[in-house]
Amino acid sequence: MKINSDNSNINLRHLRAIHAIWQEGSFVRAAETLGVVPSALTEAVRQLEENAGHALFDRRLRPPQPTALGLQFLEETRPLVEGLDRAMQRLRGGARLAHGSLAIGASPSAISGRVAPALAAFRKAHPAVAVTLYDDIAERLATLVSDGVLDLAIAGRAGTSPDLAQVEIGRDPFGLACRADHPLALRGGAIRLADIDPQDLIQLDGDTGTQRLLAGHAGLPEAFLAGNLSARSTVAQLALVRAGVGVALLPREAVLLFADPALAFVAVADLDLTRSLYLLQPARRPASPAAERFLALL
């Protein structure tokens, strides 16, 4: 856009001055409204009239009235002044979190212990902000963060991308998920891999970070990955465990997802495997005020 140098000395202060006079019907009252001395207001109008080459107000009348050209200019510039006022109100409201939105992603196992407490505190402090929570696997959440659909996500590590920043925020040991009345849970204390029947294991979908970690762990016998019962999600897996259909190898926070007393997490002494949780944020886009506040609570 080409800038007209003839107008470079005219700014919002000049427009505020003439619109205040038009609204208040008096130079003195307009100066009071704007919080300036009358002489400063008069000088602003003089500069604008000098630039235009024509009077904007007929000062012989009481109260002063816009000239024909002045009235035309006032009407043409009113949407600019009012639009700026509305934009500033929205800007200040957004900064105060008086409105706005927040879209968060999380792997299901990160919701109860990490995301939910921070989200409860955020909602209490900023009830006017619309919040949406997405639950999915890390790779899909990472794509949504990179594409701007999500402000941030808490999940396992995703593939590297120049559009994505990943910071580790916690680690979670793997163990056995089983019913609280399962014989392995009733033993008390840690068990060993040899105590688990591989045929009882409920596998998780191979696209999930959890299953990839298990598949990549050298210390896990191959039989522990070859079961013929699998679930597409952690929630479905836990539902099957709760129903007594089988057991599963999962991170601790996943097992404690619903704080269900019917489920137990049993440590496995010879399974040296942890799942890292990461904060996924856009690398090339600044965080919104809502996202910054949620992160502070998280």
TrEMBL record:
Keywords: DNA-binding, Transcription, Transcription regulation. GO terms for cellular component: cytosol. This is LysR family transcriptional regulator. SUPFAM superfamilies: Periplasmic binding protein-like II, Winged helix' DNA-binding domain. GO terms for molecular function: DNA binding; DNA-binding transcription factor activity. Belongs to the LysR transcriptional regulatory family. InterPro entries: HTH-type_LysR_regulators, LysR_HTH_N, LysR_subst-bd, WH-like_DNA-bd_sf, WH_DNA-bd_sf. Residues 10-67 form the HTH lysR-type domain.
